[in-house]
Design a protein that fits this description.
The complex is a heterodimer of chains A (about 160) and B (about 290).
Chain A: E1 9-14, H1 20-28, E2 41-42, E3 51-55, E4 58-59, H2 63-72, E5 78-82, H3 84-88, E6 98-100, E7 110-112, H4 119-154
Parallel strand pairs in A: 1-2, 1-3, 3-5, 5-7
Antiparallel strand pairs in A: 4-6
Helix pairs in contact in A: 1-4
Chain B: H1 7-37, H2 47-57, H3 66-86, H4 91-111, H5 115-146, H6 151-156, H7 161-164, H8 166-179, H9 208-231, H10 236-256, H11 262-290
Helix pairs in contact in B: 1-3, 1-9, 1-10, 2-9, 3-4, 3-9, 4-5, 5-8, 5-11, 8-11, 9-10
Classes of the chains: A alpha/beta (about 160), B mainly alpha (about 290).
Chain lengths: ~160, ~290
């Protein structure tokens, strides 16, 4: 069954954003948009999360933090780059300390451009990510099944 | 008709099978009512079940393998404590099995290396220290009224226990706030959006392990509300109304109070247990001595 789509839990990380996109992410969690209607919860804990929201272009300082956080999220997981800085580095892409979009560091599944990205487009991005999450779950399932078949063959 | 000697087993099996369903529904209603209190629509009623089903679809990520053992023990002992209670067992045994299950959760949190997990574990221990006296006073109070520690005797005694133990009941409701991890006292898990501790005791549990912790919470809800039932056992209709009102008050408290520090929790829980609980039992003792 596809329970992942019914209860996606978010983790939000600010990789040197100007806080514009972060405010919009939090706006999506307020009573006005109330994403808990769809079972979405902002967890703040990578080990409980399914969807990783990243805002801002990555810099040299927080590159390792981003990798650590990403690796602590259990599979299946999806990454959403929110705002133009997270997508490509935006107007800061030429800066000496900015590495560019977060896809230079970790694999990104959904890009939500905008400066700042609107709450509606963030929610739309999350809904798109749910489809990808489901595909990844099925891929994970078939992968473990093939692994089991291989073990059986070896015997 | 079912033979007399089989009844306890049937109650225990019914509890083990049905408590997760009832507990999950209670959690769903809780989230819905909380959302309405905050002016939101809130998640579907079955959201807690979706959450746990999802957690079982995830990868089981652990820091040390012993976490799996501790979480499983937490779930098993919680189910055992509730099953002992619903099969009419000894209240004292139930309370200590219940405490033991929480100790396993604390050990599980200590088994990881995260400082958030460790602080959560320490706070969980403080919570146990805070609520334990009042829970034991509840059992002692029921013994003083019904002359038995056995749940089966307490239920069938037909004594309106609440009239003898009003202070103990209020004290129990206050520690229920700690037990249900409601806002002024949700020190160890930080249940809602506040993230000072990340997620406290559950920080290093993900996927199926977190699912087991959630199921254990559902067992716990049913057991704790079962104790509320005991106070009104002579009138089942009144007992159900009392449980609904008690739980609604807990949700209201959850949404209207900010979190307190652990010192405040310990002090208030012990002062309540010391005044309401002990005074209630003292008066009861005095009345027993004077009034034949």
């Amino acid at each position: 069954m596809t329970y992942l789509k019914k209860s996606p839990w978010l983790l939000h990380y600010d990789a040197s954003s100007c806080n514009g996109c972060d405010i919009e992410v939090l706006a999506a969690l307020t009573p006005l948009y109330d994403v808990e209607r769809f079972g979405i919860i902002n967890t703040g804990n990578p080990k409980h999360a399914d969807i990783f929201l990243v805002t801002g272009g990555v810099n040299v300082q927080n590159k390792q933090v981003l990798i650590n956080t990403y690796e602590q999220i259990p599979e299946p997981k999806v990454v959403i780059a929110i705002g133009i800085c997270a997508t490509s580095g935006g107007i800061y892409r030429e800066c000496y300390n900015i590495l560019g979009g977060i896809d230079k560091i970790i694999p990104v599944d959904v890009y939500v451009p905008g400066c700042a990205a609107r709450p509606e487009s963030i929610i739309d991005g999350v809904v798109t990510a749910l489809g990808i999450l489901e595909q990844k779950r099925l891929a994970m399932k078939t992968k473990t099944q093939t692994k089991m078949v291989k073990v059986g063959d070896a015997r | 008709m079912i033979p007399e000697y089989l009844a306890p087993f049937i109650w225990a099996v019914l509890y083990i099978l049905l408590a997760p369903v009832i507990g999950g529904l209670i959690a769903g209603i809780d989230r819905k009512v909380t959302a309405r209190m905050q002016g939101r629509v809130g998640p579907p009623l079955l959201q807690p079940f979706y959450d746990v089903a999802k957690l079982y679809e995830k990868e089981n990520l652990v820091v040390t393998a012993s976490q799996n053992f501790f979480v499983l023990s937490y779930l098993v002992f919680m189910a055992v404590a509730g099953a002992l209670f619903f099969s009419g067992g000894d209240m004292l045994l139930v309370i200590f099995a219940f405490t033991l299950s929480h100790i396993f959760l604390v050990l599980g949190a200590y088994a990881s290396y995260s400082p958030y997990s460790h602080i959560g574990a320490e706070r969980e221990l403080l919570q146990i220290v805070a609520y334990e006296p009042m829970i034991i006073l509840t059992a002692v109070g029921m013994y003083m009224v019904t002359k038995s520690f056995f749940v089966s005797t307490i239920v069938t005694s037909n004594i309106p226990i609440i009239l003898y133990l009003p202070g103990v009941f209020i004290g129990y409701l206050i520690v229920l706030t700690i037990k249900l991890r409601k806002s002024p006292f949700d020190l160890s898990t930080s249940h809602h959006a506040h993230q000072e501790l990340v997620k406290g005791v559950t920080t290093d549990f993900g996927g199926p392990n977190l699912g087991k912790i959630e199921i254990a919470h559902w067992y716990e809800y049913v057991f704790l509300l079962g104790v509320v039932w005991l106070f009104f056992a002579w009138n089942p209709l009144l007992a159900i109304v009392a449980i609904i009102i008690a739980y609604f008050i807990e949700i209201l408290i959850d949404n209207t109070f900010a979190r307190v520090k652990w010192q405040m929790m310990l002090r208030s829980a012990w002062i309540i247990a010391g005044t309401l609980g002990l005074v209630n039992l003292g008066v009861l003792y005095y009345l027993r001595m004077v009034v034949p």
